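In pairs, describe these two lines:
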Amino acid sequence: MTVLVSGMAGPAFSKEKASSQVEHLLEQEKGELEALRKKIEKQDRELSRIGKEETRILKTLRHLEDRKKLRERELQIYQYNIHVNEKRVGEAKEAIARHKKRLGQYKLVLRDRLRQIYKNGDMYLVKILFSSVTFNQLLTRLKYMENVMAYDAVIFQDYMEQMEKLQAETEKLEKSQISLVRYEEEALEKKRQLEEEAAYKSQFLKNVKTKKIYAMQTRKELIKASEGLNQLIGRLEEKLILKQGLSLEDMKGRLQYPVKGKRLNRFGKKWDDRFDTYIVYNGVNLGVKAGTSVKAIFYGKVLYTGFLEGYGNLVILGHGNSYHSLYGHLNSIQVKKGEVVEEGKVIGLSGNTGSLVGDALYFELRHKGKPIKPSPWFQVAGK
């Protein structure tokens, strides 16, 4: 239902009282401005600290990245050396295998000779020598046997020496391989530690940047609030010079709700499950026990008192500059039409007349006849 209101509450208080009110609010706002300035300075210090911390972490990350690259280079060297070493070990093992095969073949020849010597006993060489027909043949056979035995001894000794060298080289290479693998594992572990440290620092840097963004946003909001306060202080100082009183607009964001109660609905167009339709709320219902004192939110003039369908017992106050406040569902009204009331004066007791939500105070704020959202005008929104 639309409520038609008219008239305007003029400055009904003395200029001395109006000036006193302005001075009081001016002192409050100057104090709040000083507190905001200190908060801004604190945020500046915090931003400076965060900036230094961010620079330090970035420097650490660059250092960690350089160290990680060094470890990666070390790994490449170790892996290359391991590859070369593996190849050498393989080649050495192949050479040992070849020598073993040849030595094995030669051992077979020597074994056959030794078997013949063993079968023929100690007279083996004597038999070979004395079976010669001529002396020259004897000398030839003797020379031949000496050469064969000397050759066999040299070859056998050479193979044994080569085997020992190859075996020693293989053992050396295998030990080197073990060392290289250990170094590789150490390099991998160091690289892993560096990556973990870098990941931790990166996450920490991310957190620092988040804190920086939050601090910058907070500082921005504080500066905006301080600018608003500066404007208000300017208006209040001008009013003080002109000996003018406060207006409702001067108190935006500083008003107290007429009662302390739970908000039962939100302002504006909302869906209502009970009625399965949209309902437009021009004000808010504040849940309070019946008989709770209802106070004027600001000084003004009583423009209307009485019962109005949908509102129950209703009081309308005019606050000047086309601002009005409405108080509905009252059990009793304690002011009269035309009366001028101060901020905080009890204008009635809450109840449930005309209410669909039980005991509650219906409150509405209007400007130029149109409902406006009340929460931005009060110190504690949503109460």
Residues 1-13 have pLDDT under 50 and may be disordered. The longest helix spans residues 135-242. The radius of gyration is 53 Å. The chain has two domains: 13-246, 248-377.
